[in-house]
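Workshop exercise sheet. Pairs work together: one partner reads the sequence aloud, the other fills in the structure field after running the prediction. Swap roles for the next sheet.
Pair: D.N. / O.F.
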Amino acid sequence: MVVDAVMILDELLPLNMIGMKKVQGGGLEDSLLVEGVAFKKTFSYAGFEMQPKKYKNPKIALLNIELELKAEKENAEVRVDNVEEYQSIVDAEWKILYEKLEKIHLSGTKVVLSKLPIGDVATQYFADRDMFCAGRVADEDLKRTMKACGGSIQTTVQNLTDDVLGTCEIFDERQIGGERYNLFNGCPQAKTCTIIMRGGAEQFIEETERSLHDAIMIVRRAIKNDSVVAGGGAIEMELSKYLRDYSRTIAGKEQLLIGAMAKALEIIPRQLCDNAGFDATNILNKLRQKHAQGGRWYGVDITAEDIADNYVACVWEPAVVKINALTAASEAACLILSVDETIKNPKSGGDGPGAPRGRGRGRPM
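Structure field:
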């Protein structure tokens, strides 16, 4: 799923074009990848059930306008002399609202999305004309829809032409778990996708999101830098073998330094064995034997509790990640070793005599 999600993106591989949505319920295997934009259904008024839930090649209007009648602010004051004047003010409010709705309808729009609320009158108006609307759409979702489907966010309903309206191949609203989601598939302007994660506990879904983010970053790095090495501790064991052999050709203290670094590299496969509950000593002995015989890509096989050629098994890691990790670790070790002396600041008033205690009410002893 992660590989498919990254491959949907364009050549720049923008991370913000991959949406991550969480829906509680179901199992992890129920997670799905939407080749487009998806976001949770927003609050809706009566009449929403009458609106169609699926369109093909619809025009999409992205608005930042309130389409509802609102009460005036507390400090607003309107003075009228008779009932007719009051009625004219009420009629003017309704006229303004219906003019906005009519202009949206005449533009040919079928899906109306707004960052601000869409009231019950507008919802019923759109339902009577087979139009879909959603108000209070999150700013992030609205902007991602704009990048994917085209168009622009409008602050007025004047001049709603085709160049400011977006479009997609298929729009539909679907029930996913206990939530309803609006899905935009086949977005022409930008290649985007949305991963909808399923799971039981909220903590489990949060951990899944972090794991997916790490996987997405690794796949992006592998695509941008196509040089890969075998994972599962294979490259660390090969480097350890090379450094250990090289250290024996050097006389002096440098031999100890290089040998210590070779030993430190074996921490990676050892930790993998400990995490999986394997016998680390037995696995490392097998890896040393294989690498001494020329099996440079042999690493820990978690599924079989043994060693395997991880390059053939497609357990790969980007080479640039390994280079950066080794460089950072070496620089950190050199920085620590360059410290000659440390200075510790004693706690203020830690072991010293305390202040004399009084007898209460500020009186001295």
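Discussion prompt: The chain has a mean pLDDT of 85. What would you look at next?
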